[in-house]
Amino acid sequence: MEPSRRFSIAPMMDWTTPHFRYLARQLSLHTLLYTEMVTTGALIHGDTERFLRHSPEEYPLALQLGGSDGGELAHCARLAGQFGFNEVNLNVGCPSDRVQNNMIGACLMAHPDKVAQAVSAMIEATDLPVTVKHRIGIDGRESWDQLCEFIEKVSAAGCRTFIVHARIAVLEGLSPKENRDIPPLKYDWVYRLKETYPDLEIIINGGIRTFEECHQHLAHTDGVMLGREAYHNPWLLAGVDPEFFGTPGPATSRHDALRAMFPFIQQELDRGVFLTHMSRHVMGLFHGQPGGRQFRRYLSENAHKPGSGLEVIEEALKRVPEPEPIAAG
Ligand SMILES: Cc1cc2nc3c(=O)[nH]c(=O)nc-3n(C[C@H](O)[C@H](O)[C@H](O)COP(=O)(O)O)c2cc1C
């Protein structure tokens, strides 16, 4: 079944791990979640099971792939289906040097035919929806016509959904981090894509922080994707189901959302995952709350100690007053 893309959390390396996604799912049932990018090379030659590991509780969940070889991407798209993902997404937006050298990410915006071929091979290989996340351009290829050429070629190959980070990527001279802030956001270009190609699903991404902004974007596009704000302030997600899907959210308080993760955290501890690998992704939960800083400090100072378990999170929770008000955006 096609997942709703009205509200999604962006793929983020080291951030949208299974542990962060599990937290996100305690706060919203309808938000579409994305994995971190996994390269085709890693999936094919590495520990496939480990890279694709997730819990059924995380659904709806999209797997993001990095690669450009049609045969390899087709193979990985097939794996996505076998492992139960709800969508497979191709990364055409990441500007890192490391990935440019392997023809992965934003550099592919200069090769629309290659992306079209890859997408066509993926569609052939799986019944899952195949989507593309990209920029509005790259340095040296920044015109509206070039963006349209990209969209037209890739949609002719069968892609119906484009997730558009509304700034160009500068491949020469800016770091990946700078590439998320320095090139100016051009939301109007994304709106114009929707106007020009009304039959395509156009999702907007980049710099979105509040529900008010989401509503403004939803007046011109089919969905919003939030990255950094959702990670740093995950309680925002507790308002998503009522605000954008007309259903109550699953969480009644920050405390309860975290406690609802305890069985999962224990299960992970039992298989040898260190507490700190999980606790670092819940640091933002009490963002801006009285006691939030003490919560974070307690976790930072204690979660890495050998043998740390759920009792560390219990103690950290005591640093923040309970009860909490009902979910609000
Ligand atoms: C730590 C971090 C890692 C990221 N990793 C990926 C990635 O693996 N794949 C991808 O397509 N984008 C990646 N991005 C970019 C985000 O998906 C998103 O496009 C970008 O952060 C802009 O959205 P925002 O302003 O809402 O954060 C990453 C961003 C951050 C902050």
What is the element layout, followed by pairings?
Layout: E1 7-9, H1 18-27, E2 32-39, H2 40-45, H3 48-52, E3 61-66, H4 70-82, E4 87-92, H5 97-100, H6 112-125, E5 130-135, H7 144-156, E6 161-165, H8 187-196, E7 201-205, H9 211-218, E8 223-226, H10 228-232, H11 240-245, H12 254-259, H13 262-270, H14 275-279, H15 292-302, H16 310-317
Parallel strand pairs: 1-2, 1-8, 2-3, 3-4, 4-5, 5-6, 6-7, 7-8
The structure holds flavin mononucleotide.
Concise summary:
This protein has about 325 residues and is of the alpha/beta class. It is built from 16 helices and 8 strands.
Characteristic terms for this protein:
329 residues, alpha/beta, TIM Barrel, Four Helix Bundle (Hemerythrin (Met), subunit A), binds flavin mononucleotide
What does this structure look like?
- By secondary structure, the protein is α/β, with parallel strands linked by helices.
- The chain folds into two domains: 239 residues, Aldolase class I (TIM Barrel); 64 residues, Four Helix Bundle (Hemerythrin (Met), subunit A) (Up-down Bundle).
- The protein is built from 16 helices and eight strands.
- An eight-stranded parallel barrel has the order 1-2-3-4-5-6-7-8, surrounded by five helices.
- Helix 4 runs parallel beside helix 6.
- The longest helix has 14 residues.
- The protein starts with 6 loop residues before the first strand and ends in a 12-residue tail after the last helix.
- The structure holds flavin mononucleotide.
- Flavin mononucleotide (FMN) binds next to strand 2 and helix 10.
